[in-house]
Amino acid sequence: GKLIAFVLGIPLDHPVAASRMAALRRNLLERGWAEGRNLRFEFRVVTAEPGSLERAVTEAVALAPDLIVAGSSTETAAVLAATKTIPVLFTTASDPVG
């Protein structure tokens, strides 16, 4: 199966994250992708703790996933600085071209 790693700046039980994940799971299922069958998710949540972003990105990249989903411009920039070979999808960005 495929592995998708997530680097997110909000906890998974936050209403925004929960809503987005429900929509993602629903859309993937409509296309034949089901968590536990042919798809696996790994989550790394960034906290305010010093070094949290770097640790989350390092762990996500070390998983060698098929895709990394980054939750914001900050997480996207950190992931892109850490890998040039793993595709990165950003969900929110204040400067998507940058």
Order of helices and strands: EHEHEHE
Largest sheet: 4 strands, parallel
Percent of sequence in beta strands: 15-25%
Q: How many H/I helical runs?
A: 3
What integer value in Å does the Rg equal? 13 Å
Structural class: alpha/beta
Strand ordering within the main sheet: 2-1-3-4
Question: Could you estimate the helical fraction of the residues in percent?
Answer: 25-40%
- Global geometry: globular
Uncertain ranges: none
Number of strands: 4
Distance between the termini: 32 Å
What is the residue-mean pLDDT, rounded to a whole number?
A: 92
Structure overview:
Helices cover 38% and strands 21% of the residues. With 98 residues, it is α/β, with parallel strands linked by helices. It has a four-stranded parallel β-sheet. Helix 2 (52-62) packs across helix 3 (73-82). The mean pLDDT is 92.
Keywords:
98 residues, alpha/beta, four-stranded parallel beta sheet, 38% helix, globular
Can you describe this structure in just a few lines?
The protein has 98 residues and is α/β, with parallel strands linked by helices. It has helices spanning 15-30, 52-62, 73-82, and strands at residues 2-8, 39-45, 67-70, 88-90.
